[in-house]
Design goal:
The complex is a heterodimer.
Chain A lengths: L1 H27 L4 H7 L9 H8 L7 H13 L14 H36 L4 H15 L2 H15 L20 H38 L2 H8 L4 H28 L4 H6 L5 H10 L3 H29 L5
Chain B lengths: L2 H10 L5 E4 L2 E4 L17 E5 L30 E4 L4 E4 L2 E6 L5 E6 L13 H13 L12 E8 L2 E6 L6 H6 L6 H4 L21 E5 L3 E5 L14 E5 L4 H9 L5 E2 L6 H6 L5 E3 L7 E6 L9 H10 L2 H8 L22 H10 L6 H10 L21 E4 L5 H16 L4 E4 L3 H10 L4 E4 L7 H9 L21 H10 L5 H17 L3 E6 L5 E3 L3 E2 L21 H7 L1 E2 L7
Parallel strand pairs in B: 3-12, 3-13, 16-17, 16-18
Antiparallel strand pairs in B: 1-2, 2-6, 4-5, 6-7, 7-9, 8-9, 10-11, 11-12, 13-20, 14-20, 15-18, 15-19, 21-22
Helix pairs in contact in B: 7-10, 8-11, 9-15, 13-14, 13-15, 14-15
Classes of the chains: A mainly alpha, B alpha+beta.
């Protein structure tokens, strides 16, 4: 319990620091959101409009300490503010739908990739020189080091454009009304999710596989594994509860981190497959110097990383009594 | 291919004669600006694409800085539709905007019989309410109307009289741009600034938001539309696509009927693959030019800027950088739209100075004479005092057409002995460099407005350089003069066209003889269309309005949306 409280205190301080950095980083970039808003019209907006734009966006100007105070107080009220690029739409609304799509696609793909990669890693280490170790491992390793954009475009051209196995893009068939109680719509969502999810899994599974395999090999050399085998325990029991349980610890931290970063979205996946999500929303926010939107997205990522780490900490404690 | 069908259609669609007087805009009374042909097929969903997005954000407030683009014109209509192509103002919700003889009052008469999409009648109260809202909330006064409006009198249900605080002859076009909102809805709203207007009530042909989802929105035809029988098509659909590859793919595969995207090498990547696709990149945008930081040597020297202008291979820039999508600019940067405002004197000066013509020998001679010679023998020219010259030409990272253009230019400058390199900062940095004067030479867009005046005002009016030193609009060269300032002010104080032409001629001459900017090419407007299902689009041969479905400052796409129709009847499909 004391351990948990100590960790909670640490996370609270980390959150405070992160929230302040989230506030500062966007403002350190050159350029001013109002000027960029004006410039986006590329000479088609008359300079007369500057005055009204400055009045509209008074809240992203003003002295830094005033902005910071306003930001902190609205955060405490759970208010993320109003977006600049999509003014007057609240940041929470801009993020809302993108977040849901990202959680579904990238979240699911990350979990599948981690689970699959870890299991394969266990098998690769257990049967050294076997099929997984000699064939699957190098292939996923190569895929892992491919540039993602190139691979995703290739997948799109081959499997969607030429073979027609998958839709060309979007999160669902645009002829269908968005209705989660309609099984046809849900099927369409799943169908549209497959190819992007596969490309994410295929390009990331190699990292988990290799990491787990190497951890496993280290653990397998331990005396207690030999002892367990000598006691005549079944292979699967030794493999999973004796070896894998210990070997997974370092991977778990990595998994917690990547779960947190899921919320940052998968920019390239979104662009290649025209998939809605946080990546493009963040890119847009950066390009338009939309301070409130950037802050909002950073905050969500920060909180997610911290929560995921907290959960990983607790899982650590459960898996490894020495950590208590 | 469908050209003959199209021609016939256009003969049938009567665009009524419009009288542009020097005292404002007047349309024939009681006649609509367009009339429908009852024999044309109707219905269908037009797939439109003009903006890269991964998800849509619902915002239909026409007074917001950058809402869903269709609120302008297609939903909330202006009093006056400006057709950039013909340079004419077409009285729309208003039937006339007329100045008094002393130019201090403007009388606006509205059309009768126009209804809001909820069936309520549109009248002078709505216009009065909208413009008064801009007084109450200066945040909404995007055109700074209350800088020159003193008061508004409501004469009757369809007539308003604007009393102006000073003579400002752009008042009629600026008031003509106002897109009225319905008083009976908006007067109930607490804060019009933060209002997202999810279900708009408007007068326009596509005022109905019949579907709005994360990745697709649809605008449906307004059954109460005031021009009987229009629009022909039933709905416009917008699908979100975040990347260039996806939009190009969708245009090639025929998924998109009407688009406004830059596509590199479109003849071989799109048209050769799908013969239903047509395009016309009308070079009617603002003139893309080179800007100099004229507060720094050597860019402060006219002779140096003159040499840069002489050294550039303009044809090469247009053909290599811009895929031949546009033409080289005129030396004053007036562009295709304002070609008839060209001043002979300015052209003669340009010719004498060798501006805008590729002539590396002459550029080298100009540099030699001004003392820019290679003093230290490193192969690059140096300053007259012997210090080295090395500079960057900046273009926006990822804007491939501009980057390629700047690469041609830097090569041209290297050929005459100038150490010019290409820099490609990110958009926000690029803009900030231009505005704060932390650059050497940069490519940038030119201003496009109603009159050639906007080009000169936005390029060299000293009032646009802020007290904080920030160069607003496109005053990025930071070159100003009292003489130019005076001419700029004089233009909007007269309504006499001969006098205005004289002023523009003098401004052109100032810009040319001081080489304030080096105009490169008039900006092309991106526009593609697919004639497999629909027809009636503007084509290169019959460019009756600006074709691009993305439009902010001209609402002429409204004329396109009203006139496109299917080849065969698609009603109810």
């Amino acid at each position: 319990m004391r351990f948990l409280l100590r960790r909670l205190g640490f996370y609270l301080i980390a959150l405070l620091v992160a929230v302040t950095i989230n506030f500062l980083i966007p403002r350190m970039m050159a350029g001013d959101p109002v000027q960029i808003m004006f410039a986006r019209f590329q000479g088609r907006l008359s300079p007369e409009s500057m005055e009204s734009l400055y009045q509209t966006f008074g809240f992203v100007r003003g002295p830094l300490h005033e902005q910071y105070a306003a930001y902190m107080s609205s955060l405490l009220q759970g208010n993320l503010g109003i977006s600049v690029a999509f003014f007057p739409v609240p940041v929470a609304q801009v993020i809302g739908s993108a977040l849901a799509w990202t959680l579904r696609l990238v979240g699911l793909a990350t979990i599948i990739s981690f689970t699959g990669g870890t299991l394969l890693g266990v098998i690769a280490a257990w049967r050294r020189g076997g099929f997984v170790d000699t064939i699957v491992l190098p292939i996923t390793g190569i895929l892992n080091s491919f540039p993602y954009f190139w691979l995703a475009m290739l997948a799109l051209y081959i499997f969607a454009l030429h073979l027609g196995w998958f839709p060309l893009g979007q999160a669902a068939d645009t002829d269908l009304i968005q209705d989660w109680s309609d099984p046809v719509y849900v099927m369409s969502v799943i169908q549209h999710m497959l190819l992007p999810a596969i490309t994410i899994v295929v390009t990331s599974v190699g990292g988990w596989l290799l990491g787990m395999r190497n951890n496993m090999i280290g653990v397998l050399a331990e005396d207690y594994i030999t002892l367990a085998q000598a006691k005549g325990l079944p292979d699967t029991r030794v493999m999973l509860t004796y070896a894998a349980r210990n070997a997974i610890l370092p991977s778990l931290t990595g998994f917690a981190m990547s779960l947190g970063f899921v919320l940052g979205g998968a920019l390239l996946t979104e662009i290649v497959f025209s998939y809605p999500g946080m990546g493009f929303t963040l890119l847009n926010a950066v390009n338009t110097r939309d301070y409130p939107l950037m802050q909002g997205i950073f905050l969500i990522i920060t909180v997610a990383v911290l929560v995921a780490n907290l959960i990983a900490d607790m899982a650590y404690v459960m898996l490894d009594p020495r950590a208590r | 291919m469908h050209k003959s069908v199209f021609r016939r259609t256009l003969v049938l669609v009567t665009v009524l004669a419009l009288v542009v007087t020097s005292f404002g805009f007047v349309a024939a009374q009681d006649e609509t600006p367009l009339t429908a042909d009852p024999n044309l097929p109707r219905g269908g969903t037009v797939q439109v694409s003009h903006r890269h997005a991964s998800a849509w954000v619902r915002n239909f407030n026409p007074m917001a800085p950058d809402p869903i683009n269709e609120v302008h014109g297609l939903m909330y209509e202006p009093l006056l539709v400006w057709n950039e192509v013909t340079g004419e103002g077409l009285p729309w919700l208003a039937s006339s905007l007329e100045y008094s003889d002393d130019l201090l009052t403007l009388t606006v008469t509205l059309r009768q019989g126009i209804k809001w999409s909820d069936g309520e009648e549109f009248n002078a109260d709505d216009v009065l309410f909208t413009i008064n809202l801009m007084k109450e909330y200066p945040e909404l006064d995007r055109a700074a109307l209350w800088d020159f409006i003193d008061s508004i009198e409501r004469i009757d249900d369809y007539t308003l009289q604007f009393n102006l605080s000073r003579v400002y002859t752009l008042a009629d076009t600026l008031i003509g741009e106002v897109e009225p909102v319905p008083e009976h809805i908006w007067s109930e709203i607490d804060d019009p600034i933060t209002f997202t207007n999810d279900d708009p009530v408007a007068t326009g042909p596509f005022a109905i938001v019949c579907r709005f989802e994360d990745q697709v929105y649809e605008l449906c035809a307004n059954e109460n539309y005031w021009i009987e029988g229009l629009p022909y098509v039933e709905r416009l659909q917008y699908v979100a696509r975040p990347g260039n590859e996806q939009t190009t793919l969708a245009i090639v595969s025929g998924e998109i009927d009407w688009a406004g995207h830059f596509i590199p090498d479109i003849d071989s990547t799109v048209v050769a693959v799908n013969e239903d696709v047509g395009y016309y990149f009308w070079p009617g945008g603002g003139t893309v030019s080179l800007y100099f930081q004229t507060e720094k040597a050597p860019f402060s020297d006219v002779a140096f800027r003159q040499a840069v202008s002489q050294a550039i291979d303009y044809e090469g820039v247009v053909n290599i950088g811009m895929y031949g999508y546009t033409v080289p600019a005129d030396p004053a940067g007036l562009g295709v739209r304002f070609a008839d405002w060209q001043s002979e004197a300015a052209l003669a000066t340009a010719e004498e100075m060798g501006l805008g013509t590729y002539n590396p020998e002459r550029a080298m001679q100009t540099l030699d004479e001004a003392g820019y010679v290679d003093a230290d023998g490193d192969g690059w020219r140096d300053m007259p005092d012997g210090s080295p010259i090395a500079f960057n030409i900046q273009a926006v990272s990822g804007w491939t057409d501009w980057v390629a253009s700047v690469q041609v230019i830097s090569q041209n400058l290297q050929d005459v002995g100038l150490n010019a390199q290409v820099a490609t900062p990110e958009f926000g940095d690029w803009l900030n460099n231009l505005q704060t004067g932390t650059y050497d030479i940069s490519i940038g867009w030119g201003s496009s407005g109603r009159y050639p005046w906007n080009h000169f005002r936005d390029t060299m009016f000293s009032e646009l350089i802020g007290a904080d030193g920030r160069a607003n609009a496109v005053t990025w060269s930071r070159w100003t003069s009292d003489e130019a300032d005076e001419l700029i002010r004089a233009f909007v104080a007269t309504n006499d066209e001969a006098e205005q032409r004289e002023i523009i001629g003098q401004l052109a001459e100032i810009l040319v003889e001081n080489v304030v900017i080096v105009p490169l090419f008039p900006g092309p407007t991106w526009y593609e269309y697919n004639t497999s299902t629909f027809t009636g689009f503007p084509t290169e041969d019959n460019y009756y309005a600006q074709g691009s479905p993305w439009d902010r400052d001209s609402n002429s796409r409204l004329l396109v949306a009203l006139q496109i129709h299917p080849h065969e009847d698609l009603t109810g499909e």
